[in-house]
Design goal:
The structure is a single chain. This protein has about 100 residues and is of the alpha+beta class. Helix content is about 20%, strand content about 40%. It is built from one helix and five strands. The chain starts with 7 loop residues before the first strand and ends in a 12-residue tail after the last strand.
């Protein structure tokens, strides 16, 4: 499957980041998610800041688009913040880049 420009298949590292935000996504959506598998992602990085948009499989045919940020302080403390969760997407839905919303 050819991916749209800027999208990449999820890596182990992206899955690990998604594992870290899963509980916040469950809180936002009021759902207990048994499956939470990163599929496709977009990433925007600067020196102390990264924004991730990840398409996450949460069921057989249901996907979430999760937008979160990771910041690194001058003391090297990492903070991850979930900004937005879009529910009810499909495997074929394109992740709309955050800079075009």
């Amino acid at each position: 499957m050819d991916l749209p420009a800027g999208e990449h298949y999820a890596t182990k590292e992206i899955q690990e980041l998604c594992d870290q935000v899963k509980s916040k996504v469950e809180e936002i959506t009021s759902r207990n998610l048994v499956e939470f598998k990163a599929f496709i992602y977009r990433e925007f990085k600067s020196s102390h800041f990264a924004t991730y948009q990840v398409k996450v499989c949460v069921g057989e045919t249901e996907y979430f688009h999760v937008l979160f940020h990771r910041t690194v302080s001058e003391k090297e403390e990492v903070k991850t913040t979930v900004e937005k969760v879009e529910q009810h997407h499909t495997k074929d839905d394109i992740i709309v880049p955050v800079n075009s919303q």
